[in-house]
Structures are given as structure tokens and as C-alpha cells.
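Hello support,

Our group uses your service weekly, and this is the first time we've seen a run hang past the timeout. The protein is DUF7848 domain-containing protein. I'm not sure whether the cause is the sequence or the server load. Input pasted verbatim:
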Amino acid sequence: MPDATSASTPTSRRRYRFRQYHVTAVVDPMTLPTVEAVCVTGEDHDCGATSGAVHTEDELTRWIAEHCARTGHDFYHRTTRTTLRAEPGAWH
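Update from on-call engineer: The timeout came from a worker crash unrelated to the input. Re-ran successfully.
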């Protein structure tokens, strides 16, 4: 019968091996990417005005130019979003 105390001693070690699951993310060709800008100009707090999701750089640039002309604000965060599809790979 094995000794119960030897299994819980700090010197006993167990090795676990985990397999990795590889996934490839592929851009979905059936959807258009979107871009969005948020005005972050301001001393106490950000302006927060947003362009909303648009599909072309020209639309985004036009919105930024119009907002800048109206307000004089000149700092923006830009977000680009694309729809991805996961393609599962093999276990390794």
C-alpha cells in the first residue's frame, strides 16, 4: 500500500502536457471593413464626437475635416474593424 504522506510532499511533481489548438483568422470577403473616428480633443474631458462606422477612408477624412472646421479640434482616435472567420487547424 503506498504511503499517503509521500504523495503530498512538496518534493513530488507531476507533469501535465496540454495540446495546442491552432486557429487561423481569415477576413470574411463578404463583408466590408469599417473605420470610425472619435474626437479626443479637450483639456478636462474628451469631446467624444464620433463619425460613426463608415466604409471608406474618404468618408472618414471628410468627417474629420468638417468636425475640425466647426470646432478646431485636432486629435482623434481611429478604429478599424473587419469581420473575421475562424478556421480551426489541427491539434499539436
